[in-house]
Amino acid sequence: MASTYTLISSQVLASSASSVTFSAIPATYTDLVLRCSIRDTNTGALIGSTTVTFNADTSAIYSVTKLIGNGSTASSSRQSGVASWSENYNGSNAGVTTNTFSSIEIYIPNYTSTTSKSFSQFAATENNAASSGTEIDAWAHLYRNTSAISSIEIAAYANFQTASSFYLYGISNA
Amino acid sequence: MATATYDKIATTTLGSAASSITFSSIAASWTDLRLVFVGNSSAASRYLVLQFNGDSTTNYSMTYMVGDGTTAASSGRTSDTSLYTNNYGGSSTTIPQFITADIFSYAGSTYKTVLCTTSSDKNGTGNTDTVVGLWRNTSAITSVSMQYLTIGSNINTGTTATLYGIKAA
What we know:
Number of strands of chain A: 12
Number of domains of chain A: 1
Shape of chain A: globular
Strand content of chain A: over 45%
Distance between the termini of chain B: 14 Å
Oligomer: heterodimer
Radius of gyration of chain B: 15 Å
CATH architecture of chain B: Sandwich
Distance between the termini of chain A: 11 Å
Helix content of chain B: under 10%
Largest sheet of chain A: 8 strands, antiparallel
Order of helices and strands of chain B: EEEEEEEEEEEE
CATH class of chain A: Mainly Beta
Radius of gyration of chain A: 16 Å
Largest interface: A-B, 41 and 38 residues
Strand order of the largest sheet of chain A: 1-12-3-8-9-10-5-6
CATH class of chain B: Mainly Beta
Strand content of chain B: over 45%
């Protein structure tokens, strides 16, 4: 039986980097799954945020509906008509436990379709710290573009720390 | 050679609108099932529901948490005749919903727990849902059907549904 869940590309940082890009993504799969383990060098916040764009497209056609739990409360918020979308994850603030990285999964079904792209993001940021800096996310995204997604750029708030990792998988239903 | 653990069992892309999609004759060869649905409905604000083995008795229940862009909430349903994959906001007639359903130990002889997610952002409205469902039946699941409620709303052309099998051994 043919393999359905295939690693397309991975990047594990040997030194800090401001961004990671997966380009020339083939259109040979049905869905994409991006799994990241990341931490930022930013010292300004317990939880930082990065910026993600598809196909280098910075037009205001991204939107997201968020469900967030932070250990105290659950909340929901929204961004509409924005030029990129963001992920939340550990910063390198002194209040964030050393060696803690955030885990993020982004599932993009039908990434080659000629319709708008609905996709999901689940993220976990936990650091066993009384000063908070924890978060669990279930986010719904929409990218209102009818082109196939052929590249994904994930840009750090400051820099991704060494050992941050990014794995892009393709899932085929053929 | 490593054994494949994630297999496509069946897939459907609707060439015309349909009232339901069914995957039948599901073998007991895997450990878990994963349903991936990307689509919308002919009428707005409908909920995609699942039935297993054609069971339309009141054996289904669910608990959900949802964010609608303003409020986070949690509630549930009991003794339903189908399993709601979400219960808030519902579908669009144009923007696809992305829904997953992980059906654990589907061939086992205990009740079946299902984890569903719905990503349904509509650029200014919409919601994100996480659902735990229960089907109170001890039979192995051999068919999965899906439709939008209320009855009479079709699943639109272009909708895709794929059933994967995940193998532990």
